[in-house]
Amino acid sequence: VYKVIKVFLFYTVFLYGQNQDMPIDGVAAIVGENIILKSDVSQVVGITALQMGLDASKDKASLEKLQANVLGSLIDQKVILEMAKLDSIEVAEKDIESALEQQIETFILRAGTEQMAETMLGQSLNDFRREYWYDMRDRLITEQYQQQLIMSVNINRENVVDFFSNYRDSLPVFPIKMKISHLLVKIKPSENNRLDAEKKINAIRDRIIAGESFSDLAELYSADPGSKNNGGSLGYIRRNQMV
Questions:
Q1: CB-based contact 40:28 (threshold 8 Å)
Q2: What pTM value is reported for the model?
Q3: What is the per-residue pLDDT for 35?
Q4: Which of 16, 18, 32, 63 is the most buried (most CB within 10 A)?
């Protein structure tokens, strides 16, 4: 049932995104006894867009994707909230107010001034505090419940091996990658230059064998500007990816 509702609501929020100037509110989702209004989705989308620096008027494709992600996240949150209620999870009012003030401070910091933050939110900060208080409470409850679940999980090597043995046919195959670092020494075509470069390379090799850090020597001597400041690291490379 949950999956059917979720797919239907993605379609609903897409239509809503095309008509977001309409003042009419409506139900975007119902999870247990919790109702998610389209205005709830719009508010979180606005907050998230502000945090991301997303200009909704210029990037409608990203906005529609954000709306779908926000709705899915709100549904997940409400499902977890229902489960948290069964375990009587509660949070203190001071924690809610503290988290809310931190959120507002982040808005102001990103917007530049309180007035600009209010303009981007489409409401005064006092109205935001009042309207978003319960949403922040629900968010903290779900986070606390998730944290309790994570802390109660105990996985050992035997569990991992058993899981792999039982589900190996359905697990995706990832290409083998190796973490590669290099120290580039450039030479100009000539026998003397080749000998000088070989001498330099052997000297560096001897220092590495003697215990000096490869990354430190790469920063000092590598001619590759793209990797030398990162200790010569090229990251993880697949087979046949290098020339």
A1: yes
A2: 0.47
A3: 81
A4: 16
